[in-house]
Design brief:
Layout: H1 2-12, H2 25-44, H3 49-73, H4 80-106, H5 115-140, H6 144-165
């Protein structure tokens, strides 16, 4: 377990890529479950549980489907398990880093200052987009620009679609 944590941390720090993740259905299932749980923990802080569950499910379907389609487009469908494992493994870490920040924001007093945790959360989101771009660039064997374009496109599509499911509660 420590080796997996170190691997995903190294990917988050841009020292390794998805090609270093073992191609394993079992690992992919573990990563999908961990990603779902970490995302759910973050969302439940500000969203009703049924809505949070639907948002996580939509995100998983969207992420899996778009990654698979893009890998087919780039003629690398055999990289699906590694790429999705890398994305969900690193996404789990980002979710765990976001958890205390979201808790800090949600549990602030009404007149409390949320500028610092909000700024840190913004930095974490930008880092998350950069990690996704790093993974996709290597998985597709494409330029940094292409990886960034796919990463930003996915992020905005995901935010838009999951936002339609239900409003967040303040």
């Amino acid at each position: 377990m420590q080796a997996l944590f170190n691997l995903f941390l190294d990917i988050c720090l841009f020292r390794k890529g998805p090609q270093h993740v073992p191609s394993s259905v079992a690992l992919l299932k573990i990563c999908l479950l961990a990603y779902s749980l970490s995302g759910l923990l973050v969302l439940i802080l500000s969203t009703p549980p049924p809505v949070a569950i639907l948002q996580i499910l939509l995100d998983l379907v969207l992420l899996s489907g778009l990654v698979y389609l893009a890998l087919i487009l780039y003629r690398h469908p055999q990289r699906f398990e590694q790429t999705l494992s890398a994305l969900t493994g690193t996404g789990t870490l980002i979710g765990l880093f976001a958890l205390p920040l979201m808790s800090w924001i949600v549990h602030q007093q009404p007149d409390g200052d949320t500028q610092l945790p909000s700024l840190l959360l913004l930095v974490l989101m930008i880092w998350s987009i950069a990690i996704m771009a790093h993974i996709l660039r290597q998985a597709f064997e494409a330029s940094v620009f292409v990886g960034a374009l796919y990463s930003l496109g996915y992020t905005f599509l995901s935010w838009t679609l999951t936002g339609w499911i239900g409003p967040e509660i303040s």
